[in-house]
């Protein structure tokens, strides 16, 4: 795919809304691009914190993972969890990613999905943390019925990075209205 054509297609992420929030009645929820931006920002700052603690981390690689982790959704959209019972969303995203940018970024996507490297685990942690931040913001705006999103805390606790950022997650939980 030509670069300009790719950049235009990636722009779909700015227009596509996160469907999980739409299904919960939030009228103008964040876009996929909004989510991806804050996920990358969280990745940057948590990654720098890990490096300050002496943990070897390829932060450039982690940021690449963060930037492409939802890129396939520019083509297949944000498939809500209930719909994923009918087909494999990850395979759809992998196929879209390869068609959009070739296979060179597939290893990064797989690191994220499989949490097979520290960088992949960091981005998955950042992705889930970002979703909880968004849930908190919606709840503080008066929306309810978002309990299922908070169940991801259990997944955060299983991530080895919880050891370093558990206090951050606990503080987030304490801010719930």
TrEMBL record:
**SUPFAM superfamilies hit by this protein:** HD-domain/PDEase-like
Is the keyword Hydrolase in the record? yes
Q: Which reaction does it catalyse?
A: a 2'-deoxyribonucleoside 5'-phosphate + H2O = a 2'-deoxyribonucleoside + phosphate
List each copy of the HD/PDEase domain by range. 28-141
GO cellular component labels: cytoplasm
Give the cofactors, semicolon-separated: Mn(2+); Co(2+)
What EC identifiers does the entry list? 3.1.3.89
Q: Name one GO molecular function term.
A: 5'-deoxynucleotidase activity
Checking Gene3D superfamilies in the record gives:
Hypothetical protein af1432 (1.10.3210.10)
Q: Which InterPro entries match?
A: HD/PDEase_dom, HD_domain, YfbR/HDDC2
Q: Short name of one Pfam family for this protein?
A: HD_3
Q: Which UniProt keywords apply?
A: Hydrolase, Metal-binding
Complexes and interactors: Homodimer.
Give the protein's recorded name. Answer: 5'-deoxynucleotidase
